[in-house]
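Quick note —
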Amino acid sequence: MILARENISKYKIQDYLGRGFLCNCGREHSVDIEKVVIENGAIAKIPEILIFFNFKKIFMVADENTYNVAGAGIEKILRNGDFELYKLVYIREGNLVPDEKAIGEFIINLPETTDVILAVGSGVISDLCKFMSYKLKIPYIMVATAPSMDGYASTAAPLTINGLKTTLSATVPKAIIGDIDILKNAPMDMIRAGFGDVIGKYSAINDWKLGRLINDEYYCEFVSDMVMYSVKKCVETADRLQKRDDSAIRNLMECLLLTGIAMSYTGNSRPASGSEHHLSHFIEMVYMFDGKESPPHGIKVGFNTIAVNYIREKISELNPDFSEVTKKASEFDKNKWLEDVKRLFRVSAAEVIDLNEREGINSYDKRMKRVKRIIDRWNEIVEILAEVPSYNEIRDILRKIGAPVTLKELGVDRETVLNGLVYAKEIRNRYTVLQLAWDLGVLGDLAEEMGQKFYV
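Predicted structure written out below.
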């Protein structure tokens, strides 16, 4: 089968697996995942999947919660079969962080003769196992315990290194198993987190289009359409998620997996992550510095999509004047920027400063080159910004599943979010609507406006 944009609505996940195809974008897309099983009672199929790959010596990795909801049952199934099973169950007082300590524990407990890593969990377990699989060249199989994030099928592992959220290279699993009976009974906040991650794709794809238009960045229409069709399908059944409806959970899980496959196709997280994710990473970083836990990542992503789409609407109302934008660019105070970065990013400030110096992100010359493109193609930019649902529409969609739509409901302090709106763009060298607002000289003003009118 030749994959084509016009047939995206007809494809199932299996159609994307185990194949490579030359896309109209000029690249060959492929993903190394060989099997995906999303159905009721799926964990019963783990032994036959292991036999299919000829895996006998299993290293199962879970945390306390995921072991209780799925790992213990899987262990019982495998102990009754012809398998050698070893396990690592992470124990933490708070949330497990995918940091140097967790990596060290993994290495210490890993048997030398391991055939396959069996990851049982969601975000953090997935990130740790995919990274270790990549570094140690040991294949892994993913057993998802919650439809909470889109990284199950991606080749990127966001780990916390030296206190900074850092995306590292990883590998995809040989197989992904999603047992709907387990997925639908995940904590509702994890289901909301997965849906929030899905809603964030409106923003991520939009930011990707801005990157193409302003920075001549690589962009793939097939991948973009593939993600957005899946998002649409998921949103259509959103009102059934709180009832833990099987088909709604399946649509959510499939959308999260397809987004991961999209990231594998492009070799980066562009189809899934933009300004809404950068703001979430900033909040997570600040809260970690202060020893506090922030809300689940995807819940913040969904909420942040309201915020960045508000910014999109405000930018669309502008009539930018080149001379005025140039004047604002010339007034950039690098010393104040350095002070703010050191104050906000703390132990991670040196890495942020190095990234910006190395890439010249805030340099006057590069900024003016972007500004000229922005002014020249303003009508196209406004058309792109108008492609996403309004911030009020995003808010209404999130209300359907009981997700937070105000700062009070989210439980994040106003100052951190406002700082994030201005400085989250420093975390990645990636063009987003936040960078667009900064290039136009209105980012600070919009953040202040949101503080007075939006975040009240």
